[in-house]
Amino acid sequence: MGPRLRTAPRKQPTQARATATVEVILQATARLLGKDGYDHLSTNKVAAAAGVSVGSLYQYFPSKEALVAALAERHRERVMGLVLERIAAHVDSPPEVAIREIVRGIIEAHGRDRALHRVLSEQIPRIGKLKTLIEDIEVHAAGAVRAWLERRPHGVRVKDPAVAAFIVSHAVEAAVHAGVLGDAAIDPAVLEDEVVDLVLRYLVK
Amino acid sequence: MGPRLRTAPRKQPTQARATATVEVILQATARLLGKDGYDHLSTNKVAAAAGVSVGSLYQYFPSKEALVAALAERHRERVMGLVLERIAAHVDSPPEVAIREIVRGIIEAHGRDRALHRVLSEQIPRIGKLKTLIEDIEVHAAGAVRAWLERRPHGVRVKDPAVAAFIVSHAVEAAVHAGVLGDAAIDPAVLEDEVVDLVLRYLVK
DNA sequence: ATCGAATGTGAGCGTACGCTCGCATCCACG
DNA sequence: CGTGGATGCGAGCGTACGCTCACATTCGAT
Asked: How far is the CA of A21 from the C1' of C9 (A)?
């Protein structure tokens, strides 16, 4: 067998075997990330923990950063999907209902994969490429809220929809995030009521 | 001269010279942190950038984490001092005034040392010592708001002061942080009006 | 059954890092 | 001005890391 040329470091898995490898690598990444943090993560450790050789890892992920990026991207798709879906489902609901449902959706989204979500939000901000990923989420979210505000002037008392959307999306995200993931977690039902109240009073009443 | 015993790695500078060394080290840390990020920071690089030897650095900071912790702690004292002062100054002001002044204080606090504040919040790994430092801020802030709420039932329509304080403190911090430090910064005056409105409607009206 | 491509392996090279230690230099104080 | 503690220095040791490469194994198609 002749020598192999490996000019393209990142491949897409095509066989089932490879997909499984990628999967087990990502799971090990999540585990180690939660246990030791991003700093103490290393490609060698991940490979060992995944029961895979470093070489295999490097076939799919060119760097430690890429490893975490893939994990984050995947999680983002799930969470954002859930929330945007919820928003779309309530474009025509009355504000009280829509806001409650959307807030509930956000709380649920934070509830899924709590450990992973926590780790990612704690460890991610420091990574270059991932920063744009987060900004993407924020911009998307604010955009959706803004569109929602502009579609329904009925009872909505907002001056500048862009600003209000900005404020609300950041405020809600932070409150829910801290309430669900924080050390002093709040009962989800109470959290929901309070956040809905916060938003409703600001936007509508 | 006999050998030196260095059992205690961290010293307090007593002479003026040493204080200057510590200062220049911290400044270099801030500079490199902003340029390269926490991951690519190293004690050797910091020492070189500070025009100081590694040995000197290790006399005062036992690790890279301690370096950043000192920087963060110092910044925290300034910011928290400003905000708590503002809260204390308005324990007896009417809610409309108190809330506005406090919010303005928080906005101002974020405005001072924008670059440093930004870098710290983005680059600090929320693990180990640094994590507790951040939680400290959150708990302190929520505690102050809670105390304020409990002192003044006049017109305050809040059920559970602890929960309300939690929600408000996180919501305000996030909105202000994003508004002041974010890429799409908002005019501080507008930001102030909107955040005050958000809080006032939730807590009082 | 055969064969080329896809996938998996792991020893190991080069490098950068964390940190120490023996020593030089400086400063405060008698 | 002499002395001892405080401060500053920087070569260099041990280590862990990132990543490669030559090779083994498995898969899928024929």
From this structure: 13
